[in-house]
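A favour, since you know our structure tokens better than I do. Go ahead and set the record down below.
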Amino acid sequence: MDEKHKAGFVSIVGNPNVGKSTLMNAWVGERLSIITPKAQTTRHRILGILNGENFQMVLSDTPGVIQPNYAMQSSMMDFVKTALEDADILVYMLEIGETKMKDEQLFTKIKGLKIPMVVLINKIDASNPAALDAAVAHWQTLLPQATIFPISALTGFGVEDTLSHLKSLLPPSPPYFPKDQFTDKPERFFVNEAIREQILEQYDKEIPYAVEVTTDAFVEEAALIRIRSVIMVERESQKGILIGHKGSALKRVGVGARKKLEVFFAKKIHLELFVKVNKDWRSNERQLKRFGYKY
């Protein structure tokens, strides 16, 4: 490997709904992370691998920082802590108007890191110059070692400039992954996430947060992928709501997910969905391990 080659892990952390997933998808050029307006859309740590001739940037999209209320949320925060430990470069992303992180202990840990740090102040398209100046001054005081970039992940303002800066910070290293790989997640993970995204978009209240998805079958043929997935809920009442009258609600989920998956895999998709009750799975250590929240 050329000694000029650079590679490193870039971890993106921040409070919920600051636009981390939108940004990573833009940088990688693939829709790896699902995006909805709801909090806790991202549950896992997802790697997006950006390759160039003389560099490899391994981007970590992490769950939004929250104060955990049950075991699954604690596992989500474990993903964030692991991402900090692995990082060669930290991207701390916030929304203009935010003045603190939801977890003060985690923020104290971030302030003590001895790695390059970039602070991204997002959603500046919805602000004004005075508010932006105040935000930059506030965060430069809290994180004097950081380089600050005002951006708009929605419009693309500042996105390429930030990426160029991150490339310049990468340490000399051979690539960590094959150069044709763009994520660490298997195909079934993206099937599960596409289905969960539809549930987040189409249901309110507790339903999206009580749901987990597993894919039991993924059979790829020449022009078609046959998929069978199971949606887990915690209670019988949730199952009824999710299915809807004569299966109408579940059908909408399936149609929406199938359309997204056909774009992602560039093939026709045959998708079968089933709903099962898995009582209190969010607080069950064995079930959390099964669903990939525990190692």
User: Anything to note?
Assistant: The radius of gyration is 20 Å.
